[in-house]
Amino acid sequence: MEESPARHYASVQSYLLPDDSLETARLSLQHRILTKAFEDRLVLAPVSLKSQDRVLESAAGSGIWALEFNAAFSAQNNSLLDIECIDISDKQFPQKYPSNIHFSVQSVTNLPKEWRNSFSYVHQRFLIVAMNDSLWNIAIKQLFDALVPGGWIELVEVEAKSLEFGVGPCSNLLVSLITSLYEEKGVIGDLGVYLPVVLESVGFIDIHCETRRVPIRRSLNNDGLSRSKQWYDLWMGMKAPLVARGGYGNVTTGVEFDQLLQGCLNEMG
């Protein structure tokens, strides 16, 4: 088996996933799966926006959520919002986008001071592998300060306290590797319990949690969305940091990791 191609990481130390074209494709599939899981809703918070309100998308990646949200709002309201999209890397930002959407390289842990009391709605997805307890507390405070009074924040995250995708020898080994990596990085696994406490501590009120279970299998209800492929691509994105750590004594080369993931895909069907 040939080793998979090299990937690009904005910071393999601070964020465990790459920021290249392969990751952009994975994020697009992930976006479709997640939107489908939440009944095709792009917004879960009971937010009421009007023309020229400011919206912030943190950890925007390719901006796929912001682009679709902007199109839907414009079509329904015949007006435009002012949307800021930020990420720690610009490599996934789209080349073309509407003039009311702005992309910039920013960290949610250090937002521009002039953004204080600016946004009516903040949307952020899947920062679990980039954050530890200290960073979560800093980021939530930064987002609280960026909101106008009465504004809404929406955090979409995955639960990873107990990884439940082990169904055979390959996937059980992968669970062990990912668990070790998360423990080393200080990743918070039970975000459904953890985040409401942090949100309340900085001043948020009216906190809600809405959950969905999305099985890891090739598709669900014949919707054509390959969930196992999306998860395979996610774990492949973690190949570099895992191999760099010697696979915690279990996977020592890139080829061995590729073989492990293929075995996982076969087990999960």
UniProtKB/TrEMBL annotation:
InterPro entries: SAM-dependent_MTases_sf. Transmembrane segments: none annotated. PANTHER family: METHYLTRANSFERASE, METHYLTRANSFERASE DOMAIN-CONTAINING PROTEIN-RELATED. It comes from Rhodocollybia butyracea. The lineage of its organism: Eukaryota, Fungi, Dikarya, Basidiomycota, Agaricomycotina. This is Methyltransferase domain-containing protein.
